[in-house]
Fold these 2 entries.
Entry 1:
Amino acid sequence: MEGTMKGAYLPGNSTAVLKDCPIPTPGWGQVLVKTKSSTICGSDIRCIYREHVGKGPEGYQNVIAGHEPCGQVVEEGPGVRRFKKGSRVIVYHISGCGVCHDCRMGYMISCSSPLRAAYGWQRDGGMAEYILCDEKDLVELPDELTYTDGAQVACGFGTVYEAIEKVGVSGNDAVLVVGLGPVGLATLMLCRVLGAQKLIGIEGIPERIELAKKLNLVDHVLSPSESNPDEVKALTGGKGVERSFDCSASDPGRATAIRAARQWGKIAFVGEGGTVHFNPSPDIIHDQKIIYGSWVTSIWRMEDLVERLVRWNIHPEDLVTHRFSLDNVADAYTLMEKGTCGKVAVCFDEELK
């Protein structure tokens, strides 16, 4: 396919800039995907949008932004084995070397090879009309899910599902989620469908609280404060929650996730960046608590997740509160930075509702 397309770049000064780019041609084992929906991740705001502060795997190399894309294959390169023209696909947003230990487990996120390149960070991403993808980085999008559902699986929901699988959530559990941004809301949505009987959120932004309540994702919402651990225990018979997730990346939020967990509880840190201060003996050792760090997920678990989303009949796109065209991508990033919203999507064709 010849011609030019528009792509969005993040110069690091709280703006998004559209540029004309050549439509790429797929090489061996690659496909050209027509972008249908590309959602904005908080890590884009934290590491790229305001200022280029990311290092290593989070180092932005002035490529087309966006690492949560979903679309349809429109052109095949030689050597393609599974996905053909017309295939609906989610893009796992890290293209690993494929031969290291982590890649062979499906965790390309943890690939340490110099060949590792994340879409929207070190290679062109999804904030464009087309995206060049390695076939090995694709996950099939079932017909029952929309492209905007799939875009959220590409990072946010996949990340949450990994953390949930690590700690385990069932009908036996009361769950605390600290920070009800898009990742926190996704955590509530998946914990609800997995049977958690009491869901408690901590959040200070009214728009996010309103969305959580509107979608019936939460039973109790607390305003952030030093008394949150005691408030959570009061809601759980003085015990605390069996499972807690920090999606806030804030020091007090993480400490609350630890202290609000009951004896033998499990805590997952999902939010990126920041610090945490706690007292090891009273906060975790004496109560036999376990803290898990969780970073994105594997491509095989992402495939499992899309199958389960269909089975559970839930749609990640329900968390999207605002959709923008590519021409208005600057407005999309401005809104996402403010945080007075749910998920923000840049959409194309039938997804631009």
Entry 2:
Amino acid sequence: MTSTVLASTDPIMIDHVRTLALAGGKLVEVIESANELAKLWPTDQFIVLGADMVDEAVGLPKRHNLAIVHWQYGALDVVPPQLWHTALQLGAEHVVALPEGDAWLAERLTESIVERGALGRMLIVSGACGGSGASTLAVGLAIAAELAGKNVLLIDGDIHGGGLDLLLGAEASVGARWPELIHTSGRVSTETLLPALPSPHRVALISAARKVSESPMLPAWESIINFGRHSCDVVVIDMPREQMLNKDMWAPSELECELWLVVPTRIRAVAAAAVALEHCRNIGVHAEVLVRQTNRSMSAGDISRALGTPVRAVLPEDASVSVAAELGELAGGGYAKACSSLFQEWWT
């Protein structure tokens, strides 16, 4: 039998985890001091870290093969939010509330982790220029997907922007945002990250946070995108134009995704779209054009001819959409219907 490390001084926790491990043919090595934990931290052993010793691990580097366990002393005893944030910082696969989470821990102790089957589909929404309406469309599509019964992750690609949470009225919602995730790397489990994210309107959200922050590098993007595709049916990324054109900074190799470029009916926007589309072709990204009607003197057909590419859809101009965005409310009416139709067409 191989050994698992349990770091805890709680006798109830120790007896319980030992029982689960023995049932699966595992031995548990119990450690009770910060020094012992620090010595074993760099190893490849699976460490079960008791909530009572989490403070001893703060400051240690992120590691794989780690789960944090919290003992439930009553039906109303829930995992504290701060424990989820610490778990993300340490790289934990899961925060397990025992005894409710016995099945997960027993399965993990016997090295039988079940991954979600089919990968989720990913859609990137970007704008030909600033103010094109790409963020509003990304939110609208994410909401349409959720209303269609899909599990959705919405990612804010504009790390230094105002934050997509504002468009969803979720700026005060508790949850991890990009500043807490920029150093993420490797495998991130659904059980660890999803409960730590804000989920306005039942859409899991990774948003900017309106504070000075480093930009996530490729390993963080790879980790978050892989998490999303393994955890959700749909991943929607609101990607600013400059970031979208710099694919090496965010796109994992062999990434399968679709890019929609929102082009307002304005001369400068069309000129910017022509440059963006050419660059997309040069880096091997297929982009489709969606026209946002802002000027009736220019039609979708005019833009299609100017860009030499078909227009996938025309988004209606609706003054109420801008008002809703300012209030942190969801767009309704014709715009919401257009987003629903677009999602259904894309999904099927």
